[in-house]
Amino acid sequence: MTTVPRPLALLALAPLLAPLGACAPGGAEGASDTADDGPAELVVEPRTSGTSQLLQAVSPAGDGVVWVSGHGGTWGRSTDGGLSWTTGVVPGADSLQFRDVAGFDARRAVLLAAGTGPMSRLMRTDDGGATWTETFVMDHPDGFLDCMAFVDDRRGWAYGDAVDGGLYLLETRDGGAGWSRVPASALPEALESEGGFAASGDCVAPDGEGGVAVATGNGSRPRLLRGSGEAEWTALDLPLTAGPAAGATAVGFGADGFAWAVGGAIGEPIEGPRVALSSDGGASWAAASDPAIEGPLYGGAHISGVDPESLVVVGPGGIAWSPDGGGAWTAVHDSSHWAVAFGDDGRGWAVGPRGRITALRRVR
């Protein structure tokens, strides 16, 4: 059964519902070609993961290291730029859904499991996945973690659906070895039923200014929460489809003020924008042209080092990309993918059902 992402308030609608994910390139295939001598294309190439589980997140860690995570307690790692993969199951965790992963290097990574109450957990490895240490178990019976992001190998945040009328955000300052809750009083007031989508792991992202941005959904309007341990947290509305089981699923920040947010309606079809763009670092937003694939968008990623930024989005309808930062779109794959990420060399990966890993390469 294919899992559908969704916030805590919708848990009764389906046995598996909530998104996460991210990834990194490298390997012997060479760097992407960004010369100005012809139209750009996005090349897609299937990879063998070694697992049949739904993969929901991917994270680049530099030097050809890429981490992935998924259902059935599954984690995976490549050390050759995604050409080959090692996958495994965390002992005793085969009932958990690892909907996000953050990789720091070939040895260090953090996993986020999404689920109600104690099914939401955080784990860390310091030996390349040989052993995992549980560092947090959800401390609220109705809590539901959605995604996480690190601004460096020490400071990070994990976001979850609102509980008891307050936003839920965890913070770590030691690389995920320990977590503490950000007081709800320090955060903007939660909208009714506001939460996140544990679809790609990208509903939290570094904002390029030392803090993070959180994309929310399921409330009366999608919002972008933004702040850090030192700065006041603020909230800004996003021009995306709104309502129950709708809103923003992922957000990201590129160079020169370029930022993007994606989403849609996860449940019943709802007409409305699925991509929003910013040219001023997230201070203001406008709806973008509609991508060339159907259904909600679970994740997105920009390709670093390209001007204007190229943008790739994924969802149950496949993979679409825009070489001009969200102006025009082309569908490049029609199979379901849940998460996508690119490394600094312009190469990326998208992951999805049945252990699917698709390598992405921008060429001219």
TrEMBL record:
The keyword Repeat does not apply. The keyword Signal applies. It comes from the Bacteria. Residues 1-24 form the signal peptide. This is Photosynthesis system II assembly factor Ycf48/Hcf136-like domain-containing protein. Keywords: Signal. It comes from Gaopeijia maritima.
